[in-house]
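Agenda item 2: calcium ion complex prediction
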Amino acid sequence: MFIAHHHRVAVLAGTFAIASALSAQTRTPPPSDFVLIESGGTFSTEFVNVAAAANGAVAFGDSEYGTPHFIPNINDGRYGNSYSWLAANVGTVGSYEELFVGVGVVFSAPADITSLALGRDNTGQYTDRADAEYRIQYSTTPIAGFNPATAVWNPIGVIFPLDNNPSSIRRLYSFGAGVISNVTAVRILTVAGGEHFDYSDYNPETEETTNYYIPYAGQAIDELEVYSTTAIPEPSAFAGLAGLAALAMVATRRGKR
Ligand SMILES: [Ca+2]
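Presented output:
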């Protein structure tokens, strides 16, 4: 959902110029922690998506915009704005770091993971709320009693959708580090948004301000996918298993005669 903030419109042009300057000066440049392997596309039919609710993963988060953009939308198996998570608008905050909020999933069992996918709206309808970075982290803290706030988090890398991608559809990335083993959870730290901008000393002549502010709305993710090294059995394998089961039943019946 795009939220208009009419009182901001007049300063937007200057704001974006400053944001670019701040990006260059104070924000970490896009690293090569990830390798983009697919744009668009859909759920893998090759490897198990351990982030899927359908596979027992449980979503968590510390920020939620509200209807219909609830936290469990992050892994509900559906793309699109109506099935997306949105970070809440958090009100006045003091610094860029304080803007970061988390959303993620705890797996049903530890997994060796090789890639992940995320996007703002894989249907292509919405492209807003996708211009900040997404800091991707993993945990190997045990699943039993898992608490996102106290779990140990390790960085995988940072994704800058605006800088690296021309649109905000799904992107599938492999990890530069290869397989990450025994992972119990993955989370994304990204920015919340709202009325936290401070233009009180903005100088349109110099396009400078001494107050650090970020012109972002709360970021959106329509689906987080995390792929493990476990292959999904092919249909032919299912058919084979079903066939074996049928034979076994026949054999059992014959044995009973
Ligand atoms: Ca979803």
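Discussion summary: Residues 6-256 form a domain with the Jelly Rolls fold (CATH 2.60.120.260).
Owner for follow-up: CH.
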